[in-house]
Amino acid sequence: xxxxxxxxxxxxxxxxxxxxxxxxxxxxxxxxxxxxxxxxxxxxxxxxxxxxxxxxxxxxxxxxxxxxxxxxxxxxxxxxxxxxxxxxxxxxxxxxxxxxxxxxxxxxxxxxxxxxxxxxxxxxxxxxxxxxxxxxxxxxxxxxxxxxxxxxxxxxxxxxxxxxxxxxxxxxxxxxxxxxxxxxxxxxxxxxxxxxxxxxxxxxxxxxxxxxxxxxxxxxxxxxxxxxxxxxxxxxxxxxxxxxxxxxxxxxxxxxxxxxxxxxxxxxxxxxxxxxxxxxxxxxxxxxxxxxxxxxxxxxxxxxxxxxxxxxxxxxxxxxxxxxxxxxxxxxxxxxxxxxxxxxxxxxxxxxxxxxxxxxxxxxxxxxxxxxxxxxxxxxxxxxxxxxxxxxxxxxxxxxxxxxxxxxxxxxxxxxxxxxxx
Length: 422
Prior knowledge:
disordered N terminus, 5-stranded parallel sheet, alpha/beta, 7-stranded mixed sheet, globular, Rossmann fold
């Protein structure tokens, strides 16, 4: 009788503990990251290129076991939401991502979209503290985003436009033959900021350089840049300073080449997304680009990192790799491990102290304004195989040789941010 009763008690205990055992052994829920980006429209190639970088960065974190939380190890899950490059679409995508459980938002390919997301996230986090999110920005570089519009919930991992311009200016200061420049950009917040800062820095550092033209054009809507190229050539400008990207850059430089313009291009994004192939032979020694990193950075660690990317994405057309996007995901993983949670306040506090390295590069998040501090490099276009150009870009036969390197301390700029903290 006693043995029978003992067996019943054991059976009951096993039944009661089974759900708990199954729960403990169940796979941990992933940490959802929502990439809100233009995956269709004028900059769709840029959105897809970013997605490849983030996929690879997330894969590396998951291959080493994911992130560590109090609930156990959890994988990162990257979901994509197409904003079509439009503010209203991005805001709609943000709402969908939050409803789907994302607590980390990733975006960057438009400063106007980034500004709208910051405002929306500030309001959302105040209204719904149980569903707060953080915003990691990999490319939106309007300086206002970490100055007047700085937010506790927003972290920028790219150098802002003024920092990039200062790096270009470090090269322009040494170009004593340069006597005239044409400022050209896209007519929205970022493009306007680039031209404003170009004028300010040229006036301060190269007052001998005449600004012979200054022009803004509609963003990603111009199909024929020949009239603009003709004006640039007619102005006698020896150089063009531009923050243009995607088709607005490739079509511009192609038009300039076709009419025989032989001046230099000082660019923010002349090193990728079709620009080198569009420029062709005429860009050798004349197209200069600033970046957080270039494939031809002359270190073994950098080369190994780039070779690993090419192995993961062997198609030359997919050759768009930016170190900052990988450092961003590494910083996020580090912050989750430190916080032990994806709670937005704990995560943001941990991100403020992030210090990460990869491929011989590294950087740290500045807590005062959430602007990542990292090295910057400036490269000049040359033929693959020329000294310092081991790797080309997108199978074009042209790559970028590093001609100027700035340490994080040299690239750092002051901030006017007045951070409001929860």
